[in-house]
């Protein structure tokens, strides 16, 4: 999960996105470019954590599309088998907006998708606090 209100430099975006992703977010207004980069980053983190490789996989080799979210290529990844599902969502916490992503790998031969529902991320003590 990453806050979307970050100052992400153009070099960071170039260093961690596929060339096609750079083209898709590059012409956007700066706040939207950062927000879309954060979406891509969290998707790549979720995917590599699902595989158990973390940042050992070069994020530039991973290519996602947004709206709809889909993994288009993952060169050099022999572990990717079975159907994969990705979801991307926003979470508001203490006046900040965060982006989170989820990667699910379904067993080979399974059909369908997993329904994802977020119930609550705030504790009852935090939600009942009056200011």
Give short descriptive properties of this protein.
131 residues; alpha+beta; Ribosomal Protein L22, Chain A; three-stranded antiparallel beta sheet; two-stranded antiparallel ribbon; 5 strands; 31% helix
Verbal overview:
- With 131 residues, the chain is of the alpha+beta class.
- It has a single domain, classed as 4'-phosphopantetheinyl transferase domain (Ribosomal Protein L22, Chain A, Alpha-Beta Complex), CATH 3.90.470.20.
- 31% of the residues lie in helices and 24% in strands.
- It contains four helices and five strands.
- The chain has helices at 10-16, 19-26, 30-51, 124-127; strands spanning 2-3, 62-65, 70-74, 84-93, 96-105.
- A three-stranded antiparallel beta sheet has the order 1-5-4. The protein has a two-stranded antiparallel ribbon with strand order 2-3.
- Strand 2 (62-65) and strand 3 (70-74) form a beta hairpin.
- The chain is globular and about 40 Å long.
